[in-house]
Structures are given as structure tokens and as C-alpha cells.
Design brief:
By secondary structure, this protein is α/β, with parallel strands linked by helices. Strand 3, helix 2 and strand 4 form a beta-alpha-beta unit. It starts with 6 loop residues before the first strand and ends with a helix.
Length: 281
């Protein structure tokens, strides 16, 4: 990559279960099948994927970590469900593409940020967890400034995945991060892609990147069990939805490597009907 060429970041929303993994795989192997009019050079694009729902909707198995890694994903972020598969403790310290929220208590296994080497550049990624309507964790506000400063001594390119419920918390935390020199900020967790992509103070921002998985679903989960939980108030295990239609949500950002400032941001939404595709073939 030449010194005057912008660096492209492609961030995929939360991957939900097998449908999400497969649509991610298919997109990375042949993006033109989904977006015929858009050219994506994956050799020059740093790909980040949120994977906390990748294994049957909750957590991440080592098998699925290796599977997603084989697709060409460069970095995997996560969130509150990263601990749901207990085998995570067997491999999280050696999973060199995986980042867990940095604001878990000191001594938590894994890494809350990482620096990746890509095409001659260093790209720092921070994962953070919100606290509004979420299980208690340490404050994301405490320590993030020092973490950004530490990483910016290594590289001007700093990316944040903020896994949070409340839009106000995401917007406020994003502006706080922008003031401290972050390059791009992607909200995750709610699985609904928002239409507020923008750039402020040199930082690309979107409240939620959306999700990858079954289109006919309730944020990736099966409608029937979701309905039962809402109408009966009785806990019932969620099941990952399946079906012929799958969707992929992503956000593409361009960053000037020398400054770390974002210069472009674009939402990506595509839906493909596998049954129609099979009939056409």
C-alpha cells in the first residue's frame, strides 16, 4: 500500500450463529454476489468482525474462532456474551485476533486491546462494554484516555468497538473518544443498523453496525421463542433463526494513515435469498 493511499477498514456487525458465519464467509469470498456495483479489495482492507454471538447465538467456540479466522478476518471483537462458552478460557490468551472488552476487572483473561500489523501499518483496536441496561462492569470512561494515549504512541490509527445498549451512552462515549484522537467508532450489541453514520473531529462514527444472520428473525433469533419470552415473561432459551434469506450489515471507513483521521464512512446492507439463487442455478 502506497504512503498516500487511504487505509480501508471494513467492520461487520455482530455475527449471529451459523447463518451469520456463512453469510460472512460468502461475502468475503465473493462480495460481488452481494454488491455487484461495489469493488472491495480485501487484500488492502482490514476486516473486523464482532463475534460474541457467533456460536449458536451466545459466545464463541475455539472451532468457530478458527473457522472465522480462515475466512480472512483480521480482528474479532466481542462483548458481554464472550464468556458464554466456557471453553473460551482454554484459548482466549492465545487467540491473537480476539479482543474482549477492556473494562472488565483487572486480572480478567484475554486482551482488551490489540495492535495489528497490516500492509505495513499498525492498527490498534479497543473493545469496550457499556453499562446502561447492562450487567455491571468497570466504567468504560475510566482508563480509556490512558489506553488511547498508550496506543497512539504506537500508531495514529485507533479503532473502537463499543458494545452497548443505550444510544445516548454510545453517542456520548463516541464524542469523548473523538476528543482523544480515535479514528473510527463502531457501536454494536443492538443488532439494528442505524442510519447516522458521520464523521466528527476526524473520527468515523455509527451508533450500531447491525448484524449478520437470518433476515426473517428477531435480531437473529427465532421468532417463536422470542414471542414466548415477551408474552409469557417466562425464561426460555433463545434459538438462532434460520431460513433462506440472510442479511449482512457492515460499515466501510477510509482513514488517512499518517494522521489517523477518517475521511469517509459508508453503511453496507445486503440481503440474499438462497432459495432464489439455487433456482437460478
Amino acid at each position: 500500500m502506497s504512503g498516500d493511499e487511504n487505509l480501508k477498514i471494513l467492520f461487520f456487525g455482530d455475527v449471529v450463529g451459523r447463518p451469520g458465519r456463512l453469510v460472512l464467509r460468502d461475502f468475503l469470498s465473493d462480495s460481488k454476489e452481494f454488491l455487484p456495483d461495489i469493488e472491495i479489495d480485501f487484500e488492502k482492507t482490514f476486516c473486523i468482525t464482532n463475534v460474541e454471538n457467533a456460536s449458536h447465538g451466545f459466545g464463541l467456540t475455539e472451532k468457530n474462532y478458527n473457522e472465522i479466522s480462515s475466512y480472512g478476518v483480521n480482528c474479532m471483537t466481542s462483548g458481554n456474551h464472550i464468556w458464554d462458552k466456557k471453553e473460551i478460557f482454554n484459548y482466549i490468551d492465545s487467540a491473537d485476533k480476539l479482543v474482549r472488552p477492556f473494562n472488565y476487572p483487572q486480572g480478567t483473561r484475554g486482551f482488551g486491546s490489540r495492535v495489528f500489523d497490516f500492509q505495513g501499518y499498525k492498527i490498534a483496536v479497543i473493545n469496550a462494554l457499556g453499562r446502561v441496561f447492562m450487567a455491571p462492569v468497570d466504567s468504560p470512561w475510566d482508563g480509556v484516555v490512558e489506553e488511547i494515549k498508550r496506543l497512539k504512541k504506537i500508531t495514529p490509527i485507533v479503532i473502537v468497538d463499543f458494545h452497548a445498549e443505550a444510544t445516548a451512552e454510545k453517542i456520548c462515549f463516541a464524542r469523548f473518544c473523538a476528543e482523544n484522537g480515535v479514528s473510527a467508532f463502531f457501536g454494536t450489541h443492538t443488532h439494528v443498523q442505524t442510519a447516522d453514520e458521520q464523521i466528527f473531529e476526524g473520527m468515523a462514527y455509527i451508533t450500531d453496525a447491525g448484524f449478520c444472520g437470518a433476515y426473517d428473525s428477531v435480531i437473529g433469533m427465532e421468532y417463536g421463542t422470542s414471542l414466548n419470552r415477551f408474552t409469557t415473561c417466562i425464561p426460555e432459551r433463545y434459538d438462532v433463526a434460520d431460513g433462506d434469506k440472510v442479511q449482512l450489515n457492515a460499515v466501510e471507513v477510509e482513514i488517512t494513515p499518517s494522521t489517523g483521521c477518517a475521511v469517509a464512512i459508508k453503511r453496507i446492507f445486503c440481503c440474499i435469498d438462497k432459495s432464489k439463487k439455487e433456482k437460478e442455478q
